[in-house]
């Protein structure tokens, strides 16, 4: 989780130029036949606009002369969405590449029932799978395809488009990589390396080769969609906040835009071409203030954070230098040395799964609190030294916990049964279809992209088979748990892994669960109340994660511009409501409810003391708008309130 002085921004910007007329003289709509998009990851709009407004004293022109000429003078500039508190490439590019609300919510996502990991930013498994004829599209594209959401590029026939390397990529341009590797391993480059002379990185070589091929594609009349994706601005913005370094990368981007513009103007389709520059998000780059990290994995590994075994999708800190060289890693488990009840079980039962990718945000997924309680009680019931009265009480507590979930788990199992039956039929039909198809694509099929259709069908079949196996296993575990029988007079002799599924998280936690999260047994073990039942408050370690996370303080904070509190607020969906409602927690006195009204409008309401009881009922106290609330809306000098 990154920590900056200024507010979190995610600003998608777009700049467009229509070549057949200047923006000021448009008297009728222009029908562009060709679309050329320059996709810039992580472009800070404030830095871009400021540099465009500034004048180069030597030339008397803008410091970014091409951007100013193309878009400010001959095109248009507009902002199309603005959010606070989240800045993520995968969801943002999903919105931009589809024009739809995103169904992808992070750079990595986890399936709570199966443990399957969707790592959207890892290119290497895609390239390797494509080379082996097993994968055709990037993972994000596959997810969108499964949801029936087309990309903008899908509006153009295969032979009419040129796509660069990017997150939502269909296929791989092997010729581009081939030329890059030839240059990288050329005699000239090798001599430069031996003589310690400067030599281009693979990223630079790939960018140059892609630009060369893009220009060549624009020369032909058959290409009507072309894009160029660059991550240089994002990479530099993460590395430094120094104005000179950031301007250098903007200057390079300005030159790239100018070269593309010049190439378009020189071609016959110039008057029918729309040239667009678009970015997914910005970031905070405040001169004199550097980013500081706060280790969420360390917190969740610690007793105060629950002593979880933690999953991330990347190796952490110094481990990344060596183990991070393996690009195929998607699941990294960091064991807790202080685990309350799962010592030695890190590989099977990691209970905190973290998505740390992004600017100033993180996503935390904890195993279901009652699943933890069930696991703890089963471990206790397996002990031969448990007294008879405690054993009877533990069996009663376990049965009560299972019964609380019985209806929901039976409903989930029945729904998954129905889904699996339909999936089995689809698998059988797909196998028959694949058996009937030829395994050798023709030259024409390669040219039209139809050869990839068969590969997509085969890959989807593999995904279906994996999902069927994983979800069937989850159903089997849940049904085994629901049918579990106990003998209060004897220790439990069953295999816990048969009823508590490894490498899964179970149902999501609601707000009550996270305010009363069962992190382990208490130091005293199982304690009985006056009625002879398990005293849950005394028998289990409970953590309120809302107050625990927002109360964290940095031990060393050398920058006065930064708050010592690294976590500004937490956001969680309010479950079991008719509306889409989200609770934003700063502390007990500073909270918001964000909800989507039936009209589609978004309402933001300041509240405090929001609570949820065990039965799911929620309550809160209303309050007036003021400073100090999450999002810091009233602290924004640019806030414009309607009169």
Task: Outline the structure in words.
The protein is α+β, with helices and mostly antiparallel strands and 643 residues long. The protein folds into 3 domains: 230 residues, no CATH class; 253 residues, no CATH class; 67 residues, no CATH class. It contains 19 helices and 21 strands. The strands form 6 sheets. It has a 6-stranded mixed beta sheet with strand order 4-2-9-3-8-7, with helices on both faces. A 5-stranded antiparallel beta sheet has the order 17-18-19-20-21. A 4-stranded mixed beta sheet has the order 12-11-13-14. Helix 13 crosses helix 14. The longest helix is centred in the middle third of the chain and has 49 residues. The two termini are 38 Å apart. The N terminus is likely disordered.
**Tally of separate domains:** 3
* Distance from first to last alpha carbon: 38 Å
- How many separate helices? 19
Strands, total number: 21
Fraction of residues in H or I helices? 25-40%
Largest sheet: 6 strands, mixed
Oligomer: single chain
The value of Rg in angstroms is 28 Å
Strand order of the largest sheet: 4-2-9-3-8-7
Question: For the residues shown, what is the average pLDDT?
Answer: 86
Strand fraction band?
15-25%
Structural class: alpha+beta
Poorly predicted parts: 1-12, 19-30, 185-199
Overall geometry: globular
């Amino acid at each position: 989780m990154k920590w900056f002085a200024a507010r979190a921004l995610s600003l998608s910007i777009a700049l467009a130029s229509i070549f057949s007329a200047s923006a000021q003289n448009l008297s009728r709509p222009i029908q562009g036949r060709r679309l050329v998009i320059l996709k810039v990851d992580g472009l800070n709009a404030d830095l871009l606009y400021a540099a465009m407004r500034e004048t180069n004293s030597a030339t008397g022109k803008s410091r970014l002369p091409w951007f100013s000429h193309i878009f400010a003078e001959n095109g248009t500039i507009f902002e199309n969405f603005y959010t606070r508190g989240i800045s993520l490439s995968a969801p943002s590019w999903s919105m931009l590449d589809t024009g739809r609300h995103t169904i992808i919510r992070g750079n990595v996502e986890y399936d709570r029932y199966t443990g399957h990991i969707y790592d959207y930013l890892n290119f290497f498994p895609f390239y390797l799978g494509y080379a082996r004829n097993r994968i055709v599209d990037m993972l994000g594209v596959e997810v969108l395809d499964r949801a029936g959401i087309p990309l903008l590029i899908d509006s153009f026939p295969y032979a009419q488009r040129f796509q660069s390397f990017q997150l939502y990529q269909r296929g791989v341009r092997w010729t581009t990589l081939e030329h890059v590797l030839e240059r990288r391993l050329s005699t000239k480059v090798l001599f430069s390396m031996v003589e310690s002379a400067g030599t281009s990185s693979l990223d630079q070589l790939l960018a140059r080769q892609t630009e060369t091929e893009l220009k060549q594609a624009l020369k032909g009349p058959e290409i009507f969609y072309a894009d160029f994706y660059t991550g240089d601005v994002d990479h530099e913005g993460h590395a430094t906040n120094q104005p000179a370094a950031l301007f250098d990368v903007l200057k390079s981007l300005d030159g790239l835009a100018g070269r593309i513009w010049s190439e378009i103007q020189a071609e016959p389709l110039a008057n029918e071409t729309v040239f667009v520059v678009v970015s997914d998000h910005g970031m905070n780059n405040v001169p004199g203030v550097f980013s500081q990290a706060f280790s969420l994995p360390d917190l969740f590994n610690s007793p105060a954070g629950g002593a979880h075994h933690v999953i991330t999708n990347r190796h952490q800190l110094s481990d990344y230098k060596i183990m991070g060289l393996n690009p195929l890693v998607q699941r990294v488990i960091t064991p807790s040395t202080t685990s309350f009840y799962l010592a030695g079980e890190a590989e099977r039962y990691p209970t905190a799964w973290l998505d740390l990718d992004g600017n100033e945000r993180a996503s935390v997924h904890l195993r279901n609190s009652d699943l933890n309680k069930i696991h703890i009680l089963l471990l206790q019931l397996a002990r031969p030294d448990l007294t008879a009265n405690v054993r009877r009480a533990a069996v009663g507590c376990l049965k009560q916990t299972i019964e609380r979930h019985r209806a929901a788990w039976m409903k989930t199992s029945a729904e998954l049964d129905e889904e699996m039956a339909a999936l089995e039929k689809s698998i059988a039909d797909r196998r028959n279809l694949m058996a009937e198809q030829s395994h050798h694509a023709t030259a024409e099929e390669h040219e039209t992209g139809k050869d990839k259709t068969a590969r997509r069908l085969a890959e989807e079949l593999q995904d279906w088979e994996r999902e069927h196996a994983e979800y069937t296993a989850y159903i089997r575990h849940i049904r085994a748990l629901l049918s579990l029988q106990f003998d209060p007079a004897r220790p439990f002799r069953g295999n816990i892994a048969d009823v508590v599924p490894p490498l899964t998280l179970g149902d999501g936690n609601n707000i009550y669960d996270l305010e009363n999260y069962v992190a382990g047994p208490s130091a005293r073990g199982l304690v009985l109340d006056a009625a002879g039942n398990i005293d849950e408050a005394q028998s289990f370690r409970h953590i309120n994660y809302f107050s625990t996370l927002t109360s964290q303080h940095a031990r060393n904070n050398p920058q006065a511009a930064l708050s010592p509190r690294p976590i500004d607020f937490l956001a969680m969906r309010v479950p079991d409501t008719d509306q889409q409602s989200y609770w934003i927690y700063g502390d007990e006195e500073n909270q918001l409810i964000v909800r989507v009204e039936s009209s589609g409008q978004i309402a933001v309401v300041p509240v405090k003391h929001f609570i949820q009881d065990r039965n799911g009922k929620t309550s809160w106290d209303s309050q007036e708008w003021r400073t100090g609330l999450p999002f810091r809306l009233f602290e924004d000098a640019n806030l414009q309130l309607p009169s």
